[in-house]
Amino acid sequence: MENKTAIAMTQLVGFKEYLLERENAPATLEKYLRDVRKFFAFAGEGSEITKEKLLIYKERLMEGYSVSSVNSMLVALNQFLGYMGLGRLRLKRVRVQRIDLEHAQKALGKEEFRRLVRTARDCGKEQLAMIMETMCATGIRVSELKYFRVENLRSGIVKVWNKGKYRMVILPALLKNKLLLYIRRNGIKSGMIFCTRSGREKDRSNIWREMKAVAKCAGIGGRKVFPHNLRHLFARSFYAKTKNLITLADILGHSSLEVTRIYASDGIEKWRREIEQIGLLEGTT
């Protein structure tokens, strides 16, 4: 028997309170509300929420968005359905190949990363160079830079709280020494290591913009250069060395090994190289 619950814009008020009670991050809260409004606009206020309508909406999303974007929007919609007591109508995420091909094409190489850091220093952007090295050497998210404080440097362990999860980030010895030298040179006595001149935490978009400018000077494609790609490079490098996916998931703070598997993949070019090595065909004249 179909649930006759109808769509009403007023439901978003209660949904917002529900998300607040679940301690969702502000950015997550706004995204969920935005994604649910998108479904409301598709279905129309006053219409019934049925499985058939939800499946049609999912198909419509697949026509206009990437798989990762569709799955992201389905997560938000499923949260709303749970809030409404319609958990049985939840939609399954779109399944993809183990390797995300789009991600593979954007992969930043180790030498490209090093060239990016060198160029940043040559351009007098020491803070940006240190931020990139910190992210790439630890696999942290850009939003976790604020937990890197003078007070916890000497222990070599930074305690991070993000996405409702607590974990410890271990600093490699070389990074620790670089950070100690950086704060000494810049007279940073306490508090956040990476902040604006006014003392506020660095903004994601500002870091991205600085990276793009440096990438242009370094001759590196702009599609490869964004903060989160440093986390991907860490994951691929760690897995290539250790083949330990479970430990990598713990380091990155992932609850799903499937997400970690995508991060750690060398991508389509590795597939291509391995296929070329099979050598089934004879050479042509």
UniProtKB/TrEMBL annotation:
Residues 103-276 form the Tyr recombinase domain. It holds the Pfam family Phage_integrase. The keyword DNA-binding applies. GO terms for biological process: DNA integration; DNA recombination. Residues 6-85 form the Core-binding (CB) domain. The keyword DNA-binding applies. It comes from the Bacteria. Gene3D superfamilies: 1.10.150.130, Intergrase catalytic core. One of its GO terms (molecular function) is DNA binding. Belongs to the 'phage' integrase family. Site-specific tyrosine recombinase, which acts by catalyzing the cutting and rejoining of the recombining DNA molecules. This is Tyrosine-type recombinase/integrase. It comes from Candidatus Egerieimonas intestinavium.
